[in-house]
């Protein structure tokens, strides 16, 4: 039996160098500005995206990879080693058709294959973390079963909260989910956003002002993790300081053993808007 | 000739004159407000409460004192507005319960009833404060119980009650330091003394004796309106012979047509005109009083006393179709009562039906089935901007009122009944409205929780803590807690010179009030705001919200914001148009 291969998509927000180091295959989603289509994290990086977003009058749209694009990746991996089991972990099916495309791709394959496609029911590093763990295990030569068990276990170990400048992007992109009730308020209300177990956006709480919002996030995380050793990942959009402030606050309040940083890519950014920051925390 | 007992008719005459005395002195009572803010309204509140009581009494004339006092009590209870109004309603609630079933009452029974009223009022108030209307009522009742053993003359007893109440009123500054500082007596207590005075005079008339001939008060304790009150308007007291009092009282009803109707915005083709509630109220106020305008969705309830009912109707027509139009001539009513003639039955039914008819205010036609929401929220607010903020944040009904007009218990009851929700929260947003809201919660058979918010900022914080998916108990706890986390401040113009807690205040100055304390008085609005903000931020805070009201100018607000950004670079600042009257700025620090 060959080495397990890990496939994900661009919305896992895993930096390119990390992907290369761990041999993670990434299928990009697409961002469309008017007539121009960009491949997320391939032909447009986070920095370029937010610059373009600031200049663009119309909001960009996004689209999932086609089944064919998934099939090509699977076929390439199988051509390298037909014995390799493939674990393909993707953006919440409640938010995107990416998972659906992957499933169709698998059914299109004529080759004999062992592909496990997982709906992460999460977004960004919320499932990127699982992708990383899986890739590390795969590199260490762990079996498919053990990796799948670990992915399952990690599912419940991670908490994510994110803040947006405005709910406008979530609303216009149709991903506002259960936070829709907060739309249209005159007051500068900061919803504390997260994803529910099905991967739908939800407002856990609402407060006024970003300082209060960050304090509330710390409170919520404290409730889950206390003083246990944890790893955190902070994700931010280009040119935003809130994430760094949030990072400092979290570092000072928790038993943080590992910190990593990532940017929120073009596709997620299309739906959350500029000025989004997120914290992902999980038990070590 | 002494009077050994009184019946329902006697009591009705007493109550009517009591209400009349209170009404004529309402402005005087308003002027006794401790803070020199422009919205002292104890007199207005008590007057409207008493007016509601008397209206109910008039609609159910009875020779039985038990029935008469019950009618007054019911009217008071529903019309209760403001803390003093609520306490007044409780005093008479106990009074009437004590007399239930009696045809007439003598001194011992009346004294016991007064005492019963005091007990009831003390029970109703969560934290009874001495030096207020409670103390005045208590001492008067205590004296009555003792004095009733010595006399069987009701007039004499009531004179003693009035005298004792007046004396207790003079001592209120000794019990409540803030009164002494400002140099006033308690306003609610003063209101009660006026009512008792009306009682005494009514009894003296039926005695055939002029009250003043028998008035045994020492001269320094002479008529209560001579109490030294800074800047209080002189009280106009009619000095005509008392035998003429009754007629004069009738003529004294200046705005004689008591009007009540609804403007239905959805009916007829007249929905075009934009309804500006405060402008409409001002227009009514040009030739009317006792104005009450309640807007609920597309239905506006209007109550006004006017000299020209036609003008009022014409004024209202552009906003929609007028329904349920009731117009009563109050002089006619008054004459009928005084002449002890039969009150027109249909008129009586009218007024009695008022309470019930009020419950048809809601826009839900009968017979239509609606699914009930788990929660409903009623907030009291004034100012278009503030109302909008509440409505956008889970509040279902905004009762217009607050600093200048306190909604009555009845307004709350109607708002409660109109909401199709399992559990209802009320945010009074004013310390003087909490009791009326609580009384409504008690009277209503629905599940109602009053979150005792004392300011608009507290109310806003409370609604933001509300979560649709949570239980009522947890929501109540969170909303209450959230309200307590906010520091409130407001700026208004002083209406008289005074000195309070070390701050010298001149009329026309801007005063900054932090929670319940005046922390600054300054001729400059800008400087008053700045000092207040400094004081509010003494113990920190991340977010300052500014609600601009009438009297705040854009340039001044911009200057203030620049100053804040410079002084407190870390502070988050949010400016909203509140549109509240009298208070150019309301601040919230969180």
From TrEMBL, chain A:
Lineage of the native species?
Bacteria, Bacillati, Bacillota, Bacilli, Bacillales
Coiled-coil blocks: none
Keyword annotations for this protein, in alphabetical order, are: Lipid-binding
User: What is the protein's name according to its record?
Assistant: DegV family protein with EDD domain
What Gene3D superfamilies does this protein map onto?
3.30.1180.10, 3.40.50.10170
Concerning InterPro entries, the annotation shows: DegV, DegV_C, DegV_domain_contain
A GO MF term: lipid binding
Q: What SUPFAM superfamilies does the annotation carry?
A: DAK1/DegV-like
**One Pfam family from the record:** DegV
- Superkingdom of this entry's organism? Bacteria
User: What PROSITE patterns does its record include?
Assistant: DEGV (PS51482)
From TrEMBL, chain B:
Do you know which InterPro entries this protein is assigned to? DegV_domain_contain (IPR050270), DhaL_dom (IPR004007), DhaL_dom_sf (IPR036117), FakA-like_C (IPR033470), FakA-like_M (IPR048394), YloV-like (IPR019986)
Q: Name one GO biological process term.
A: glycerol metabolic process
Tell me which Pfam families the record gives: Dak2, FakA-like_C, FakA-like_M
**Superkingdom of the organism of origin:** Bacteria
Q: Which Gene3D superfamilies match?
A: 1.25.40.340
The chain positions of domain DhaL read: 9-201
Which molecular function GO terms apply here? Answer: glycerone kinase activity
Q: What is this protein called?
A: DhaL domain-containing protein
Organism of derivation: Paenibacillus prosopidis
